[in-house]
Amino acid sequence: MKPQALLLLGLYRLAGHLLTPLAALKRLEPQRRGFLSPAEVWMHAASVGEAGVAAAIIRAIKRIRPRTRLLLTLHTRPGLKRAAELLKDIPGLELALAPYDLPRYARRAFGRVSPRVFVPVETELWPNLLEEARRRGVVTVLVNGRLSARSLRRYQRIKALMEHLLRGFYALGVIGPLEAKRFLQLGAEKEKVFLLGNAKYDLLRERARDLKPEKARKKLSSSTNWVVFGSVRRGEERMVSRAIRQLKDGSRALSFLVAPRHPESAPVFAESLRAEGLAPAFWTALERPADGVVILDEVGPLLETYALARVAFVGGSLVPKGGQNPLEPAAFRVPVLFGPHMDNFPYEAEKLVSNGGGRRVADAQDLAQKMDFWLRNDAERTRAGTNAYQVLEEFSQAAENYAELVIRALNRLPL
User: Fold this and answer.
1) On the chain, which terminus has fewer CB atoms closer than 10 Å, C or N?
2) What is the per-residue pLDDT for 299?
3) What is the distance between the alpha carbons of residues 159 and 180, in angstroms, rounded to a whole number?
4) How far apart are CA 237 and CA 234, in angstroms?
5) Where are the alpha helices (DSSP H) in 40-92?
6) What span, in angstroms and rounded, lies between the C-alpha atoms of 301 and 296?
């Protein structure tokens, strides 16, 4: 280990030792202190979003190697709850809250689990856990590896330590070329980095296939064509309202659903829509199937509404928020539009544009015009929706790739 890495790791571990007595005073749950169940494969994820990724990979592992004993730990209670929902039918699986990354708890956790393979999900690069795995000779595999530009800048401040940790991995499976480049910048070994895709889409495809949008059908009238503006963010309310006004003026056969990313923003969107002469209704107040303009002021039903849409726009993209997932409407063969700011989904956006399943828009007028084209041309809209779904299909092979990587690690096979 390089001297700088040794110093950084030593300081981190010292801080952990000093914090352990304080943690003990909080009467933490046994799982937080490392009291976990034995497993061959220990997968470690953060919260709700990562629970979906872990679930897809675990299902793939079980399809290939049914008798594998697995443990999945989550940092948050909502994440643990979500994992329990997604994996309730999987035998030979234990779920638990993750231990805190303190030296004593990490040592106890590995001693009790005694895994053959340790599998952090996305960016769960905890030094004590990784160092304990290395000390015990446990094979470590990163799955669905992600590293944003912001995270890269933060980790570069402790590059010597990150290089030490990354070089202890058997393999680093990452979602795309940008992530691969960033891990290499932090010192990962090129021959250990593999581009395997994003496992979140395997679960999305399954959810879309099995979804029954009964709640949405009870809320939204079937007498008009619905256009969905999903996960829109503050700063987009005027552009979305103007686009709806233009589309409304051009056709009386359209209805619109606006889903703020944060439901507490619903009144702001309502005010903006009223300023355009529209009369929005709130989803939670609907007592019978509605048309016109509806604001989805509730978390949860957005995916159902995409299933009923003719065309969709995904928000957080007309303002620099990184964009939202454009493959959610694509899962229902719905063509999708988005703004120029898709930093969180660059591969998905690029592929949708290149194959004709999606389009970039610059502003309210551009959004209304491109939506109007698809809404007035059934054949073009159907073709675009089919192309959009093909993108999802292409992105939905990752869980199997990661499962095979984990199983290779279990069998100690060369890469």
Assistant:
1) C
2) 87
3) 16
4) 6
5) 48-64, 77-86
6) 8
Q: What is the token pair recorded at 164? A: 């030490």
Rg from Cα positions in the chain = 23
Check residue 144 and give left, alpha or beta (phi > 0: left; psi -120 to 50: alpha). left
- What's the whole-number average pLDDT of the chain? 94
Name the amino acid, one letter, at 75: H
| Rounded-to-integer distance, Cα 232 and Cα 44, Å | 31
> H or E stretch including 410?
helix 398-410
State mean pLDDT over 134-156: 95
The amino acid at residue 110 is: F
Token pair 């040794």 is found at 6
HSE (side-chain half, CA atoms, 13 Å) at 286:
24
Q: What mean pLDDT comes out for the span 330-342? A: 98
Q: Is the pTM of this model over 0.70?
A: yes
CB atoms within 10 A of CB 386: 15
**Integer distance in angstroms from the first to the last C-alpha of the chain?**
24
Q: What angle separates helix 127-136 from helix 159-166, to the nearest 10 degrees?
A: 40
Q: Give me the DSSP letters along 127-186.
A: HHHHHHHHHHT-EEEEEEE---HHHHHHHHTTHHHHHHHHTT-SEEEESSHHHHHHHHHT
Walk me through the domains of the chain, giving residue ranges and CATH numbers: 12-197+397-410 (3.40.50.11720), 209-394 (3.40.50.2000)
Query: What average pLDDT does the segment 175-194 reach?
Result: 96
pLDDT at 249 over 90: no
